[in-house]
Each structure stands twice: as C-alpha cells, then as structure tokens.
C-alpha cells in the first residue's frame, strides 16, 4: 500500500507540471506516468489481503505484466469516457486521445480508431499472458488464480461505473422533456418514459457488450428525464391544496 501510494503522489504532480511547461508526452511516457496515478495500484491492494504468497510470486515478471495490461485497459476506457469533459475545460493534454492526435498528427476519429485497436491489442496480450503464468504448486496456484480473477472483476467494476454514469443524461434532458410534456400533455410523455425505462432495462439484462450496456443505460436516462417534469405536472394538477401537493411531491 505504501509503495503504491508513494508512486501515486510522485506521479500525480506531473500533470500540472506538464501543463505549466506546455509539455506533451509521448504515448509511452504518458502510460508510464498514468499507470501510477490512475488509482489502479492502490485499488489492487484489497485483492491481496486474504492471499498469502511469497514476494517472488507477487513480483514475478508475468504477474506484473498482467497487472500492467489491466491498468492500461482501465486508462484507455477512462480516458475515452472523460475526454469530452477534459477538452471542454482545456485540460486534456493528459488524455490518450489528445496524445495520440498530437503524436500521430491525426484527428479525433483517427485517435479513437487507434485507441480501439490498441485496446484490442492489450486484451490479446493479457490473454496471452495468462497462458504464460507458471505453476508454483496447488496451494499457490489457487491463490494466483483468485488474484487474476480479481483483476478481471475490478475491470468489470470500472466498466459498470461508466454504464451507471450514462444515466446522468437524465439531468441533461429534463428541460427538453418538460417542453415536450407541455406540448403533448404530461400523461403520454410519462407513460412513454416508463415504457423506455422498462424495455431498455430488460434489454440491458441481455446485452452482451459493455458499449451496448452504456448505450442502453444512456437511453434509460432519457426515459427517466421524460418522467420527471410530466410526473410533477400531473401531481400538481391532481393535488390542489398546498399541504396535499407538498406531501405528494415529497413522496
């Protein structure tokens, strides 16, 4: 824990330093720095608490290599998700998309294509690395298997955060949904919103890709946005006294 947090603190100061000196990193130097401050290494520590294998196993080159691949996948997915906000704030030089555009002289779509291809390459490297994990005997092998499964579980947890965050589109579309409710009456807009939430929720349970899940969750956010102003309008019309209306809106 101390080792990973120290590396985090030493690397996180590089982003403002690069900004102050108008420095653009290469992809290699960016990833070397970002692996330390993405927060993956400290997050791996709880995975190790119930495991007991020697340092020569923990620091084996193949095990370290696999942890780097998982960290790189997290970096790539995080940077794609956060790029729009970062470039809007003018602080996107520590983002893989900006760095790819700068290093290769390509546009945004070209950078996205590069990230997609590199992501697939890292995934293949991880799967290949799994085949090269040595055996240390039944007891250690069981623990290593659990440790590597924890890597995968952590990556899925990060991806689920992206999917849940997509629902934040609810707050983006509330004003537009309110306008639609004013034009077409609140009840059909409310029912349509509920229908979208239900149908897309069922679809999300069967979708097989993280991109598909994020898209469906974003569309659910639009459905949720449709229910908020229309429900408020219907409740306001149904409960005319201030006390009753206040209770209804609170509930």
Describe this structure in words.
This protein has helices at residues 2-12, 14-20, 27-37, 40-48, 55-58, 61-88, 96-104, 108-131, 138-166, 169-184, 186-206, 210-238, 242-250. With 251 residues, it is mainly alpha-helical.
Secondary-structure blueprint:
Layout: H1 2-12, H2 14-20, H3 27-37, H4 40-48, H5 55-58, H6 61-88, H7 96-104, H8 108-131, H9 138-166, H10 169-184, H11 186-206, H12 210-238, H13 242-250
Helix pairs in contact: 1-3, 4-9, 6-8, 6-9, 7-8, 9-12, 10-11, 10-12, 11-12
Question: Key features?
Answer:
251 residues; 82% helix; single chain
What's the main sheet like? none
Name the shape in a single word. extended
Uncertain stretches of 5 or more adjacent residues:
none
Rounded to the nearest angstrom, the radius of gyration is 24 Å
Give the strand content: under 5%
Query: Count of DSSP E strands?
Result: 0
| Helix fraction bin | over 70%
Helix/strand order, N-terminal first:
HHHHHHHHHHHHH
User: What class do helices, strands and sheet pairing give?
Assistant: mainly alpha
Query: Overall pLDDT, averaged?
Result: 79
Number of helices, counting only DSSP H or I runs of 4 residues or more: 13
First-last Cα distance: 45 Å
